[in-house]
Amino acid sequence: MRLARLFNDLLERWSSKAKYLAFNDKKVAKMKRASALVIGLAIFSALGLAETWTGTVVDVMCKDRDLASHTRDCALTCAKGGYGLVLADGKFAKFDETGNAKALAALKASSKEKDLKAKVTGTMDGDVIQVESISIE
Fold first, then answer.
1. Structure pTM?
2. Cβ contact 53:120 at 8 Å
3. Percent share of the chain, pLDDT over 90
């Protein structure tokens, strides 16, 4: 009888610990999933979502001049200085090196001679746009 009682005691203790461990395993699994979700969201936001801007493409040398009369030929001639976008509020956002190459290609492909309005997609890093795409409108 003592042996049966001892066995039952051990069985009860083991089953209560097993329930505790099983509960904690579920809790740990939920915490891992929640952590993975938070980390995933953090990585997604750190990568940054692309934004779109519209404005006038202009070479850096002519950014303070009259944009309406700024010509495509002038922009092509001054390509070495790089390009940027003059936004509607008058602020100038410079393009990164990739953006400069894409702007040059877009200007060469465009038939517009003046008023070089463009739509630019990318991410802003300080006052520099990391250009993903550009189209002269």
1. 0.63
2. yes
3. 47
26 half-sphere exposure, CB direction, 13 A CA radius: 5
Q: Which long-range CB contacts under 8 A does 47-53 form with residues at least 24 apart?
A: 48/123, 49/123, 50/121, 50/122, 50/123, 50/132, 51/121, 51/122, 51/123, 51/124, 52/119, 52/120, 52/121, 53/85, 53/87, 53/93, 53/119, 53/120, 53/129
Distance CA 131, CA 121 (A): 6
Can you read off the two tokens belonging to residue 69?
A: 């009369």
Q: What is the pLDDT of residue 14?
A: 61
